[in-house]
User: Fold these one by one.
Assistant:
Number 1:
Amino acid sequence: MLKFVVRRLLLLGPILLGLSVLLFFWVRALPGGPAVALLGERATPESLARVEQLYGLDQPWYVQYSKFLTRAVQLDFGNSTQTNRPVTEEMARTFPATFELAVAALLLAVAVGIPLGYLAARHYGRWLDNLSVTGSLLGVAIPVFFLAYILKYVFAVRLGWFPTQGRQDPRMDADHPTGLYVLDGILTGNLEASWDAVMHLVLPAFALASIPLAIIVRITRASVLDVVHEDYVRTAEAKGLWERTITRRHVLRNALLPVVTVVGLQAGLLFSGAILTETVFAFDGVGRFVAEAISNRDYAVLQGFILVIAALYVLINLAVDVSYGLIDPRVRVK
Amino acid sequence: MRGTGLKRRLIAGAIAGGLVLTVAACGGDDDSGSGASGDGGTLVFGASADPVILDGALISDGESARPIQQIYEGLVGTEEGGTELVPELAESWEPSDDGLQWTFTLRDDVTFHDGEPFNAEAVCFNFDRWYNFSGIMQSPSVSYYWNAVMGGFANNEGPEQGESMYASCEATDEFTATVTLTRPSSTFISALAMPAFSMASPKALEEYEADAVSGTGESPSFDGTFGYEHPVGTGPFMLADPSDWERGSQLTLTRNDDYWGEPAKLERLIFTVIPDGPARRQALEAGDIDGYDLVAPADLGALEQAGFQILYRPAFNVAYVGFQQNTPPLDNLKIRQAIAHAINRENLVRTNYPEGSQVATQFMPPELFGYAEDVPTYEYDPELAKQLIAESGETNLDIEFWYPTDVSRPYMPNAEANWELIRTDLEAVGFTITPKRAPWDPDYLNTYQTGNTPMYLIGWTGDFGDPDNFLGTFFKNPNQEFAFNNPEIHQLLQQAEAETDLEARTALYEEANRLIMEFLPGVPYVHTEPAVAFAEGVSGYVPGPLNNESFASVTVE
Amino acid sequence: MSLSQVEAATESDQLEPGGANLRRAAWRRLRRDPVALVGFALIAMFVLVAILAPLIAPYGPRDQPGAGLITPTTIPGPSAEHWFGLDEQGRDELSRIIYGARQSLLVGVVAMLLGMAGGLVLGMLAGAFGRWVDTVVMRIVDVMLSIPGLLMAIAIAAVLGQSLTSVMIAIAVINVPIFARLLRGQMLSQRESDYVLAARSLGVRHRSIVLSHVLPNSMSPVIVQATLTLATAIIEAAALSFLGLGGADPSVPEWGRMLASTQLYLASAPHLALFPGLAIVIAALGFTLVGERLREALDPKYRR
């Protein structure tokens, strides 16, 4: 087992290295060159010179790259040109929000997707199957921001059931020790704030959940179909066990394994969706910050955020692989 | 003031457009549980962006200016709803005969939020702080307005700076401050009403290291905590606790109970960031916020029908199509005239602007002195446009036409929609238009200021009530934005700025307006009345042309 | 944003090689599948509208039949004369939607073809040569897959500037690693299969085996992926437009841009946001339904 983990960790190295190379050259490919890209086009010659020296832009590319790498390892990505604050500080501020939103979206997707996939499999080939498959695929075909607009318009603007934007009612006095607002409310004993944060999460989480939903439905459906035809289930059926018991004891448990894997792999996908969802709901997380960085040409932010997001994505997948390996010994051999 | 300066000002003007509003949240809605004492309640105002920093000297954007106007005050202010100067921290002021010395008689009953007394020494401390900015602090993108108004520092470090208009400040007695200038100026005193010249507590400035800065001029990093956690002024609202500013999402200001004038009615004033315009409208409709600025024209009808209050600021802006005469065929006057006659400005204004917007005839709004009724005008006449093109002798009618994205300004709520209508009009008379666009900040602003956008959409919102803020900004000196050199126009505007007699100035600016519209460096097309929206039950907000409204008189039911 | 990215990462080995017989059988099953038929109908509608746009659109995309009627708060909605109403410039919305289909189809097809071509080259390199080529190529693919698709598209569009071409290239690039991994998986499993071993033992040349046996037999899952990519490319293009990174000429109707820009008019003309949104959904749903059911039809697991 240890060997498996170590081998996977070793794979992490080349990927991160490759990423850093890619990002290093990306900034150099930007219109105007790296110094202008990092400072904005208003840069005076003096500041340009200062930055060129800081990044060693007058030196050969491999020297520049090693400087970049050294700084990246120390998590030093410079300052955001939008807020004038260190990129790392902005990460610390925005990541908890997106984490909270992504977890909520995944929970929703699993809560809806697994029953739907199970139903579809149990009624394989019949209209209930077709309906749930088509329904989940509709979630894929709707652009996330369109869905977000519709949800907001109907449930927040017209019906008024949920707030239209943000993470917390501005009038609410709440402390945020962790940045995870729902948790913060519980920690500080302010359950009202927790509830308010939950209400702010519902619509964005639904919009975001549309993306993983289809995959969870499909995987659940496929795994259930697989398992249903395995010998032990047939045996159980032959023994006359109630369908419900079979479901719980055998089918779902075995079908859940691939779902766990897929949920881990959603991280990157969810992030793309978060850029759009957070923008529509003015949800103060990584996605919205990145969207603003795009329109403000804040390349220092984009560079740092892409590197960290990609690294996180790889790490999450590693964690999923490892936990999967723990559950199912067959994986380790592969 | 050109180049970066103009860009910055445009931003500032635009921001101002989104200024201040006071809305108090209804007591009933106030579920903050903070045990609000007294009356007043809470007002939540939707801002389009987070403030950059709460230090007037270091900002040039409207979303920073809005809270700064509530926390700080200047020596002079402007009348509610207008541009006339009124006393603020100075009870009166008097220029010397040569216009070089300004004596300010100060109020003697003012203290800063931290309990420090406001007096002549504090005034001079602030002026000397600005005057002695060094290094990065001198960068036009850091201390934009000082650069724009004063033109230089004690020790100039950049090539852009010249001799400073400011020479010195002396505390003649406890409540009398005398500011000495190096040259007379007709705009100095008006400029002092801007948030860039507001008075901060000397003790807090020093203690919280307002001038500690690192990084670069374009991307400064303010290392002190003054502007982030301890912005100490004299205004009716204050930042009661450093944690009340949650960067990126909301800023909560608290009433200053020791205010020298009538205290604010609101207990708390919250600015919450909602970047997207339609989202601000929806937040207002849903009751999440009590008011917001920069209301889109398309939203006015729906909001009014639903019973929301729409308040209009006087039209103190102009939007125009700019020409860069370094690019043929725009150097040809007949072509510029043809374009002016080809654009259906009435249709453009009706289609894309709210009712009450005026078709512009010149580069400044009618509210200002110096506006000329008898400038040359260019009626919509496609046939005449075609004829002018034929007379011009130009055969290459390809023009690059630029517009900005990611931006909404009161004078230009939807640049793309304006662009499309104008393009259609121009192609109808025979021009070939190449579409060009760029994100507003920094790409678009930079590109047009460096003379790389032959024809482009832009506009301006006034910072203070003087024609020099419009005409002078555009045409006082040759620049890349218009890329022409017409000594007659440049000299006339320089003369008008130095002139101190109001009647003489008025005549000079009227003459300048006639000359400019004859020369046609661009086609002004609209003056708009920017709108602010509030929930029912909010009252006491007086919209003004300079977007510097105070929330102190606002109440919420 | 890309559903396919996750699929590429998880499922390439679920797809089994499909020979000609299997494809024929799959086709038969597909023709009886109501979900796939709905998908085919949607695709047919979308493609026909795009091709026949000038014939069926009542107005040109830039005509302004409503010029002079429009103010920001009065934008006429659907009527007998203008089925989808007018837009904020007084243009016929139906005609704009119809012409917009051309842009979407163009972006979808070009981005898919480019992405597939790139992926095929990488995947074949890796699958055909194996060993260190394989390792290097697959590490590159890993790196590309580790960046969220939309973020990568944004990064590429930032370098290339605002134009339709850069949108197509950006979307193509994020699909390259997906196709590459898919094809490599296919070729590896084929390489070990009996008929390839047999051919090799008969002395058939390596390149010839790859080109005439391995590649054709790996195509079924690629076709599935291509169909799904058409859907995601349309949605990704809309997302890029939404973020302000769309084509250069605003007068050319583009659904994503129409959807984003009409948000400004939501209060006075909600129909303007609805129709482009629905158009995107219809086009994307068609390709998604067909792609998913095709995948299933080709998968032996479902042959019961």
Number 2:
Amino acid sequence: MFGVIARGLGDAAALSEARAMLAQAGVDTVTSARALDHLGAPGLTDSENLLLGFARDTLWYQPAAIQRRARAVRDRLARPEFIEALGVCSLANAVCRLSAAVVEP
Amino acid sequence: MAEWGLGLALVALAGSIGLWLRQRARTSELTARLRAATVDLQRLQQSCARFAPATVVDRLLTDGAEAAAERKEITALFADVVAYTSLAERLEAPVLARILNGYYQRMSDAISEHSGHVSTFIGDGILAYFGAFEPNPWQSDDAVRAALAMRRALAGYNRELGAEGLPPLAIGIGLHRGMVLAGLVGTRERMEYACIGRTVNVAARVQALTRTHDTDILLTDAVRERLDPTFQLAPRPAAPIKGIAEPIVTYTVA
């Protein structure tokens, strides 16, 4: 989700970090590239693919789109997972926007 | 002497209170005017956001219209109703208008649902952009998903029209990706947000090729190259289009 938001905002530094984190977590490069390029990959679970789309919809702060997708995500995740997803998206959006201000191009 | 000093202090205190009250009233008045101006500005920005991206509206307000144009990569979608002229000749104007409005609404919803923005309705045609308003690295996938959603929406709409004894609509959709100049164009009296460049023209001409290839959706190599491999594409024979020297290969999508 962090990688999707970094890619959507064009934040190269955060995207590089996200790729490194995915590799450390054992996600192969083909799967991570496919997930970041197309918001889904065959090697990921249904929930993971769903969350990538949700992360993308949080990029431009359009409440209607965020709420519509959030309801769909909420119905398919356990409550703690859903809250974690909201937290990750919020944090990733903040970090990627701030990194554009502090990281040299 | 002490009484005189006390009186002077009271006068000074009363004067200070008066000044403070006047200043407070003035501050309240200015705050109210500032709030009203902010509400007006927000309303203006919301109205403008229906016609141009928020970032463009912000730049327009700070830098003026000339500064609000930039080169960017977008995917253009051009849709057109097949045999519209004969349809228009057969139907009464109010019926035709109702059919077209229902068509526009359903197609616009399908485009918006997939992060696209309808730029304009050109007669019975629809021009939409993906990646023009905000950067969108997934614009090819979005545009093809929107085209597929338009196909499904039209099938549903045709069932509704059939139930009323009205003729079905058929559409052609062309998709192409490339660089454009995006920004506000027009005169001082009338401006609109538009994407200018060969990309948009090619999308329109690829749409016209749907008749040649007897299909409803066609996309170019520029779209296919960045497309999710799970889409099922089938190439069509290279065909010439106006403005491009070599015949181009296009792809249908299932």
Number 3:
Amino acid sequence: MSASGKTKTVRGVTLRSDPAREPCFTIVQLQSELHDYDDMSDVSRRQRLHRHMHNEMQTLEIVAQSLADFPDAPWELRMQLARQCWDESRHSAILYRRLRAMGGRKGEFPIMNYEWGVTQLLDSMPARLAVQNRTFEGGEMDLLRQQHHMWSEAGDDENAALMDALLADEVQHVRYANRWLKQMARENPRTLLQVATGIQLLKKITEGLAPEPGEVNAVGVNLTEFTHVEVITNMVDRKLAEFTDAELAELLRKEGFSSLVPSTTEAA
Amino acid sequence: MAERRPRYEAPKITSMDRDEVLQAFQMSAAQISAAGCWWTAAGSCTPTSQPCTAGATNPV
């Protein structure tokens, strides 16, 4: 990695430099440096909570930065961003509490500021809403639904219930972004260009940082043998977040579930 | 020589309405996960064949 001022370069990809972190944290730049386990051992459970806690910290910073960067945004939108900051800080605190209850500690595992690095390159509110809320948090809705099942099947009902509660908040964060993006696009078509710019940048970064075949992480898990198809679209909650049927159909197609798309929607 | 040239085709313009643009410019969780930033691997307890259809029990 190289860094100069506001940006850093990781595997040839430009990202925003890392935010400040307490000295107890070890910041890394690639998934291969993380300690993601492929089981539900005690250390893996702590690592999952630690990673989730840090993800919520990042989201708080990203949303708070939008409040600072776009002071002229509509007041109602700023209020929703502020409420989201409160949600994310609460999520971080709850996850930290659970981490400690399970014998973990802050800084126990390496952390990566991927979402921050991407979103802070975007210079418009629509692009930030599209990438952070509609894409990252939309994806987190899919992830949380599965993590609810995962913790439940692992016999940890407390963490399973926690995932469900966090999911309910994420639905609201994605829904308000969907509403604002559609309203902004009606009022100003330039919004669509800003959305497209944000998503194209995310695609480019995603391709640039994808693991090489056979690459293993810091605890020996093969990163490319693991199948990412496991992250499956959470249809019900995405509908609550006001993704349209056509948008959901497009997501299903992207995940290889074209056969599940109703023909009437497919034709739309 | 001129006969071997490909036939001229007039440029085509695809127009998309507002909803179609928002529909097209999306990324799924699986696509984001490929960047190596997300992780759900958990052995056999992770569903792999169907999209999740169970909603949050406490939706806002």
Number 4:
Amino acid sequence: MRKLALLFLFSFLAIQLKAQEYTGGIEMATGMRSSGKIYVVVATIAIIFVGLVWYLITLDKRISNIEKKVK
Amino acid sequence: MKNNWWKALAIVLVFYSIVGGLLFYVPAKPILNETIRNLYFHVPMWFSMIILFLISVINSIKYLRSNNENHDLKAVENVNVGMIFGVLGLLTGMIWAKYTWGEAWSNDPKQNGAAIAMLIYAAYILLRNSIDEEQKRARISAIYNIFAFPIMIVLLFILPRMTDSLHPGNGGNPGFNAYDLDASMRYVFYPACIGWILFSVWMVQLRYRIRKINNLTTN
């Protein structure tokens, strides 16, 4: 099952990102400042999602502990 | 970890859909512009809701066949979490409609149908809360649930297609059919749907386990 899941995940690596446009040697906005700073928004949403997931995982563990105690 | 791999998969897929959904290439379309990316976030809310309601109705049927209380608990928790996803779907749809259709609520058949479907399931929760006796509550709400599910399907997928609807994929509007064929969007859209469905099932599982503990400690 785990192998199947891995295969499934790696199949998405096949996606091709759009190539960056040529800027003619002049230094342009790079990293987090490029593409209209959309990466900042991506980072923000990613952090929020990771935080919520972390919350859900700790909740899951706590419930598991209580389940063990009750049984 | 052996039994929790699907939770990890849910996290990975949703995380991937957030990053990929915001950054990967999407076709440029008039009016839609970048809001075409809402496909990755708004639509999986509804798919998750429908899957949860489907699991719920299956458990209701199982309850009627077995009289096992666990099936009843699963049925109600699936509806509870499904409602959250339905409300999120309605709200995200309204924001999108405001900037593409011009009006947050234009009494479109799809919007009205979704709202009525939400009310039907709100009535399911109300019905449960109004019956004190446990077995009676479980049986009556299970039967109600079996009627609610097909009505929800008709309201969301059949009636909007029989008239004119602004919503993509409905009525005289070819909508997303053309964009769905865009292979680059499928790479994000399908993982997003699977990820959110698994994520919602995880939320149901947590609520179900809390309910089980609650029952064990109060009995």
